[in-house]
Amino acid sequence: MKEYQKLQLRYTRDLDDLATKFDWISGIRLLFALAFVFNLYLYLQPGNSFLIILLPILAIAFLLAVREHQKVSWKKLLKKTLKRINVDEASYLDGKKIPFGNGAEFINPTHAFSHDLDFFGEHSLFHNLNRTSTRMGNRVLASSLTSTLSPDEIVKTQSAIKELEPNVDWRQEVQALGMIKQDDEESYKDLLSWARKERPELSKAAIFASYAIPSLVIPSLVIYFTTPLAIFGNISLLLFVINLLIVGLHKKRIEGEIIGSTEIDKVLRQYSLILEKVEQEEFKSARLKELQDALSTGQTTASIKISQLSTLFGQLDHVQNVFASPLLNGLFLFHMHTLRSLDQWRAKWARHVYDWLEVIGNVEALNSLAHFAHNNPEYVYPELNENQTIEFQNLGHPLINSETRVNNDVTFNTQSFFILTGSNMSGKSTFLRTLGVNMVLTSIGAPVCASAANVHPLPVLVSMRMSDSLNESESYFFAEVKRLKKIMDSLDRMTGFVLLDEILRGTNSDDKRSGTIEVIRKMVEKKAIGVIATHDLEVCKTEKEDPEKLANKCFEVEIQNNELVFDYKLREGICKNKSATFLMEKIGVI
Fold first, then answer.
1. Does some domain include residue 466?
2. Are 286 and 401 members of one domain?
3. Could you tell me if residue 525 is inside a domain?
4. Among candidates 261, 298, 266, 291, which has minimal Cα distance to 277?
5. Could you state, in chain order, the average pLDDT of each consecutive group of 10 residues for the chain (590 residues)?
6. Which domain holds residue 221?
7. What is the DSSP letter of 573?
8. Measured between alpha carbons, how far is 403 from 400 in angstroms, rounded to an integer?
9. Is the dihedral of CA 355, 357, 360, 362 positive or negative?
C-alpha cells in the first residue's frame, strides 16, 4: 500500500506543477489574443498600415500558445487519472472497496467451473484481478479465466507477467490511457461492424468534382475581391451552391459512416496511444514480442493508422455542425474528401482493426495478472510437469485475507482422488474452491497462492453450485445430473481435475449414497484427479476398493469452552467429530 501512497503524492505534486504552468499559459494566450485585437484596431486606423507585419506574428504566437495549452491540459488529465488509479489501489489493499469492473456480464451457470468457483460478479476473482479499461481488455481477461493454455503458452505467459510486474509506471499508464475516455459495448461493437461492412466506392464523377469544383471556388473569390469583375462573385456563389448540392446528395452516405457515439474519435485516440506504448517498449519475453509484432504493418504502425482513423472520424463529425459544415463543404467539399479517405482507409486497414484491438486486450489482461503478481510478491509461479502430479505447499485462497487465511499442503500423485469429509463450516467448500482457483491460475500463467507448486495443468471440471432452472422447467437434481454427465463426457476425451461438492442432494439418502459411490468409481476408472466432498461417512469406505488411487481426507471441528473451534487444516482419514447437534442445542433450535 505504501508504494501506491507514494505514487499518489508524486502525481499530486505533478498536478500542482502542471496547474501553475496551465495558468501561466492561459494568461499568455489571453495576452496574445488581446494584442492581436488591439493591433488589428490600430492597423485599421489611418497611417498604421505598417502594423500589418505584426498581425501574422501575433496570430502564430496565439496558435502556439493554444497548442501548448492543449498539451498541458492533456498532461493534467493523464496525471489526474494516474493519481486516481493509485488512490483506488491503496483503497483496495486497505479493504475499503473494489473499484474495478466485476465482470458480471460474463457469468455463465453452464460453464465447467467459472460459476461454481465465483469467477465473475461482486467480490469475484475477476473483480479482484481486473485492471483493464477497454471492452476488449475485459473480454480477453474473462476469456483467459475460462480457458486452459498449453504448457508452452503457460511458460510464455509466465515470462510476460514477470517482465511486466516490476514495470509499475508503464502498466499504470496503459491503464490510465484506457480510462481517460473509456469505450463502451455499443461503440466497441459499432466500430467492429464498421470495419467489416463493405461500402460502394464513390463514383469517378463525384471524385472528379470533389477536386475540380473547389479548385475553381478560391480563385474566383480572389479575382472577385481583387478586381472590379463582379461576375466572379456570381460564379463563386454558383460554385459554392453546387458544392453544397453535391454534399447534400451524399449526406446520407456520409452520416452512415458516423459510429454510434459522437466521441468515437476520442476512443480511437486512446486506442492509438495505448498501441503506441506497446510499440515503443523494448520487450524481452516472447509473448510480449509476439503482441508487438502483430502491430507492425510494413512501413507504418497500428498506432499511426488508428490515429489517422480517429482524425477522419473527428472530421466526419463536423458534418452535423450547422456553422462549420456549410462553409467547409461549400468551399472545399471537405466531407467528400473525408468520405473518400475513410473508404481508402477501410479498404486497406479495416481487416486489421479486430487484431489490433485484441493486442490491446491481451496487453491489458497481462497487465492485470502482472498487477496481481506485484500485489502478492509471496505467491509463486508453479513448475510444470506432464506426469499428472499436482503438489502445493501452503496452498491458500488468493481472495482470503492473508492474516486470516489458513493454508494447507496437498499432493495428488499415486493417490489421485480424495474423498473429503467434515462438518458444515469446517472448510470443505472453501478448500475445493482454493484448489480450483489455483489450478486455473496455473493454467493461465499466473502465480498461485502457495509457497511452492509443481503442477500438471489440467482442465478444471466442477459441480458445486447448482440451481433450479425455471426457464427450462428443470429441477435442481436434473441440472446436477446433466452437469455430471458433461464431466463424465469430458473425462472420456481427456484427463481432468474434478471438484465435486456434496452431489445428488436432490434425492433420498440411500439413492444419494449409492449414486455418489458409483460416481467415485467412475472417476477412478476414467483416471480423474480431484476431490469429492461428502457428509456421508459410508461413502468413505470406497477407499478400500482401490487404496492406491483413493484417499480419505478431512477437516475436523473441536468443542472448546462450549464453543465450536475450526482450524481449517487438512487431515488424513475420515472426519470423526460432529457439530450439527451441538450447534442447534447451543442456539436453542433443539
1. yes
2. no
3. yes
4. 291
5. 92 95 94 90 79 86 93 96 96 90 94 94 96 96 94 97 98 96 86 87 87 89 81 88 90 80 83 96 97 89 95 83 82 90 92 96 98 97 96 97 94 94 89 97 98 97 67 65 93 96 84 94 95 94 94 88 84 82 61
6. 184-364
7. S
8. 8
9. negative
